[in-house]
Amino acid sequence: MHLEAIQTALRAARLDAWLFYDHHHRDPLAASILGLPDTGLVSRRWYYIIPAEGEPRKLVHRIEAGKLDALPGTRGAYSSWQELERGLDAMLAPFTRIAMQYSPNNDIMYVSMVDAGTVEFLRSLGKQIVSSADLVSLFEAVLSQEQIDSHFAAQRALDDIVNQAFQLIGSRARAGAPLSEYEMMLWFREAMDQAGLTTDHGPNVSVNENSSDSHYEPSAASSRRISTGSFLLIDIWARLNTPGSIWYDITWTGVVNREPTEHERVIFACVRDARDAAIDTVRAAFTDGGYPISGFQADDAARNVVNAAGHGQYFTHRTGHNIGTEIHGAGANLDNFETHDTRRILPFTCFSVEPGIYLPEFGVRSEINMVTTHDHAAVTGRIQRELVRI
Questions:
Q1: Average pLDDT for residues 66-82, to the nearest whole number?
Q2: What is the domain count for the chain?
Q3: Which residues contact 125 (CB under 8 A, 6 or more apart)?
Q4: Where are the alpha helices (H) located in 175-197, listed in sequence order?
Q5: Which helix (H) or strand (E) holds 22?
Q6: Is the pTM of this model over 0.85?
Q7: What pLDDT, on the 0 to 100 scale, is given for residue 100?
Q8: Which is it for strands 388-389 and 248-255: parallel, antiparallel or unpaired?
């Protein structure tokens, strides 16, 4: 836990304190930010408050009195619910504006870990509960240089694997011995393993109408052949097989052993232009340190392009997600569709940009990743400009 940095951030946000609370591991963000193990028994409620100034304080049940011993600060204990309420009232007495893992109206559910009853009780004590969403981003999504380097290492390896896959798919189709979606998924997993990469599942290798399922994953029972004439989408993600490494997550589309139709070209161009609109919006915000920009603003830039082309009903997901040690990280998403994500896109964070149009007969998504600094935002890998001729 970085106590001094947390207190500095609280003062900058004009907050009195940040209150962490857990029961049965309901808040993994608390464990991560405080540096607590996410294993072991949490059968009784614990509370830990970090003030903007001064020493932190703990409130734990006597049965699990040592639960927060790894953290600095004074300890209070309770046994009964009445003693718990009195202990909280005393511990929080100096503070009014308190951050918690809470989101008004559950708008940003990724940080909405505190139950409504706890919020109600704290409000009855006269406390103003404020969302910790941007604080969580600051301490969970901001990457070290070593982590950024790990992202680029995964990028180089995975981009090479995708190139090899296109060559294999094309050669097998032209030889009249096409591979199936499922066979290619297994090939990708083996190639990633040999390159020192790891993944959690997938990838999505899908042809024709299957490419319209944005979370498609082939199976041995229902896999389609990737043959001459197929429209192909590959959505693949991986990280170095080392602790703390950062994911690289991309999607490419192409056609097998033929030229694209005019309709396919038009749909791809719309998705490409939407992707580039979001990229340009983020780049402009970071030029010469001109940020902040919120996640919803980048989503608006991409979605406006798709809506203007008349395809808005087929763009059925957010424009992008934060990327960290988890493929869907704890920072701002590019989203004004599934959620209204007001979290700021912070310097030294990584995220995807991946608009898509999913028609009944085929789907197009073009996904790249970006990394930001204090005055710059850049795409981290290759950028697809036209449908791949495989």
A1: 96
A2: 2
A3: 88, 89, 92
A4: 181-194
A5: strand 17-22
A6: yes
A7: 98
A8: parallel
Q: Are residues 98 and 61 in the same domain?
A: yes
Of residues 278, 267, 198, the one with CA closest to residue 236 = 198
Question: Both tokens of residue 343?
Answer: 């979290």
User: 199-253, pLDDT tens digit by residue?
Assistant: 998 899 999 999 999 889 999 988 999 999 999 999 999 999 999 999 999 999 9
Residue pLDDT, tens place only, 144-168: 999 999 999 999 999 999 999 999 9
Residue 2's nearest CA partner among 18, 26, 22 is 18
d(CA 57, CA 75): 6
Shared domain for 116 and 201, answered yes or no, is: no
User: 110-137 b/e with 16+ CB inside 10 Å = b?
Assistant: bbbbbeeebeeebeeeebebbbbbbbbb
The Cα–Cα gap between 140 and 356 comes to 28
What is the pLDDT at residue 351?
98
pLDDT digits (tens, 9 = 90+) for 335-372: 999 999 999 999 999 999 999 999 999 999 999 999 99
Domain endpoint, select from 140, 168, 202? 140
CATH classification of the domain holding 86: 3.40.350.10
Alpha-carbon dihedral sign for residues 337, 339, 344, 348: negative
Residue 227 sits in the same domain as residue 130: no
Residues in the chain: 390
Handedness of CA 225, 254, 186, 210 (dihedral sign): negative
Of 241, 144, 257, whose CA–CA distance to 192 is shortest? 241
> Do residue 99 and residue 124 come from a single domain?
yes
Of 125, 140, 155, the one marking the end of a domain is 140
pLDDT higher than 80, residue 290: no
Model confidence band, residue 40 (pLDDT cutoffs 50, 70, 90) = confident
Query: Residue 183's domain spans which residues?
Result: 145-389
Residues 349 and 243 in one domain: yes
